[in-house]
Amino acid sequence: MKTIHLWDLPTRAFHWLLVAAIGAAWFTGEQAGSWMVWHGRIGILIIGLISFRLAWGVVGSTYARFANFVRGPAVIADYLRGRWHGHGHNPLGALSVLGLLGLISLQLGTGLFATSDDSGFNGFLQSLVGSGLSERLTGLHHLGFDILLVLIGLHFAAIVFYTHFKKDNLLKPMLTGKKQVERGEDARGGRWPALVLALLIAFGAMWAASGAWLPPPPPPPASSW
Ligand code: HEM
Ligand code: HEM
Predict the structure, then answer these.
(1) What are the CA-CA distances from residue 153 to residues 47, 111, 150, 213 (Å)?
(2) Which of 45, 141, 147, 148 maximizes ligand 2 atoms within 8 Å of its Cβ, making it the mutation to test the pocket?
(3) Given this model, what pLDDT does residue 218 score?
């Protein structure tokens, strides 16, 4: 057996920050009222995290790259027949990774245009759509979160299943970055220039989503008194 570097630090930092941020978005969204200001801030943080991960999936190190783990049905079938011996996300697990990233992105998209009647807090781009569409997107934001909870539950169950029944501890590499394998190579690439590029993309997306570029709302009409 030998030890390889599997998950680079940015991928691990992304994962655990995402777990904390989704928990905080859940808490603040359910509390509503004055917590919604924080819900919006945390939402922008999650936009940064997801944009970072999408960029890192192209310029990051070996096992973090989408090209390394997003596979077609033939490879998934091979995996199910026990004929896949790679490292990183397995071809089936990759579907759950894509599902989580995709659903969180939709959740962010609907949140940005959502309206909250009770707290007066609106998504930062809500003024770009009519009130009818905003209400429908708010409905999808509620529904999307329920589906996300199911996916997160399955994700957690899969990690427990692999640890206890397949005797493959996936959690340790996501914490330490290292994995014991019979054969395999260290992750390569994903150096400083790639990190700077991915961070720039993340900050650009956070700025675009914050609506800072929108013209300020018109002042309220002057009172007749
Ligand atoms: C809010 C809850 C969670 C979300 C949204 C989430 C999301 C994700 C995502 C997107 C990935 C892919 C990582 C990447 O390639 O960037 C991942 C992988 C992983 N997550 Fe989570 N996660 C959550 C909770 C947890 C928890 C509580 C654990 C610990 C038990 C966990 C353990 C793992 C592990 C071990 C992997 C690597 C799986 C593999 O080796 O293929 N996650 N998670
Ligand atoms: C992945 C990130 C997000 C998650 C997990 C999330 C989750 C939630 C949850 C659980 C609720 C309460 C739903 C309910 O009571 O049934 C909520 C409400 C809301 N969220 Fe998010 N949210 C996210 C991102 C965002 C973003 C980026 C914005 C916009 C800045 C946003 C705007 C809103 C608004 C305006 C409401 C109130 C809707 C209402 O009062 O009906 N959310 N969100």
Answers:
(1) 22, 22, 5, 37
(2) 141
(3) 81
